[in-house]
Amino acid sequence: MTENYDNYISRHIRKAYLRRLVSPIIYLLILIILWILFPLHDILLPQHLDNPGNLAAYSNAHFSYVDANLENLYFTGYTNTSFGQTNGYYYYTMWDGQCIIVLLSPHTCEEGLPEIDSVQIRGRVLKGNAMYDALLDKLSQDLNWTKDGISGKVSGYFISEPAFKLFRSSLLMGIYFATGAYTVIRLLLYILYIYFPIFSPTCRQLGRFGKPSVLLAQAEEELATLPQLATEDMFITEHYFIVLASYGVAVVPIAEIIWIYKYSTLHKILWHHFSISYTLHITANKHLYIQCPKNMKSDIDGIIDYLSEANHDILVGFNEENRLKIKNKTVQTQENTGARE
Q: Between the CA atoms of 72, 77, 83 and 87, what dihedral angle is there, to the nearest 10 degrees?
């Protein structure tokens, strides 16, 4: 018995957080795969457009996001519309003797300024599509050029600011890095708890009632020496109620427990009732609440009987009278704490 339960609480905390390492590691691997498969790096840090005269070099699906400084843009008189809404305005500018078409968002061009001296945009280099070809046809008619003639002067690729989808891209990157940072923090905390169980939430909660290291050492010693009562994942020692379950770990001084009761849950599929599980609810001083779900009735009844015998001040059972007593006691404790402060 002594050997089996030696440092049992700390070992269980380590095992619990070793299991929890799996989900953040998997999520980080998914983020890495997404970074490789999708142009997230280019959305975050788009390449600077140094040579607009060779837009084809920037049109790769993974490298089509660009940051561009453009000068002397002139409105073509044509817009890009979808479902009756104007998404962008077509402008042209000359670069090394070649005409470059730029689709600006309504906000950037103030909904169709005739001329723009200079502008810095983030956009995508896209290959001409049917709408772009229609634009060139209209421009060739306006200039009295042939389609082949205008194709020789105008690049077959254009820069689209709306295609960058700045808001959606910013939101995507925000979610990506926020969830990634949260996952890394979780991973580091789990590793910390594995190497130093005293810093785990279980021991921090125990710190409400005294020095965590001292109380944990006492609980470990009592559990290793002679537990008074033991179920599959709940234990009672001389001074502590201990939960060592897959869903969590808790250590509570019996003297601090003020209310215990059980709650039953009926499990069924459609109309067929197939089992009943019981949850032990424990309320302790310093606003500590613990739930021990999916237990057998006999185990919970044994725990409740033993705890109520060990501490006669514990209220047993869920009823309105006990609920009001606990509520009043909590309010009184808060008032006393505020008065001391």
A: 10
Contacts of 213 (CB under 8 A, 6+ apart): 198, 203
Give one word for 111, left, alpha or beta, with left for phi > 0 and alpha for psi -120 to 50.
left
pLDDT at position 285 over 70: yes
- Of the candidates 315, 307, 292, the residue with the CA atom closest to the CA atom of residue 241: 307
As given in the structure block, the two tokens for residue 51 are 């040579």
Q: E strand or H helix at 252, and its extent?
A: strand 248-253
Q: What is the pLDDT of residues 84-140, one digit of tens each?
A: 788 899 998 887 777 888 999 999 999 989 999 999 999 888 888 888 888 888 888
Task: Give the C-alpha distances (Å, rounded to integers) separating 64 from 31, 54, 284.
Answer: 21, 12, 60
Burial class (CB in 10 A: 0-12, 13-18, 19+), 322: middle
Tokens of 49: 């457009």
In angstroms, what CA-CA distances link 179 with 38, 171, 175, 185? Answer: 17, 12, 6, 10
CB distance 35 to 41 below 8 Å = yes
Q: Distance between CA 260 and CA 95 in Å, rounded?
A: 79
How much is the pTM?
A: 0.75
C-alpha 67/C-alpha 119 separation (Å) is: 11
β-sheet with 315-316: strand ranges across: 288-295, 272-284, 257-269, 315-316
Amino acid identity at 172: L
Longest dimension (CA), the chain: 101
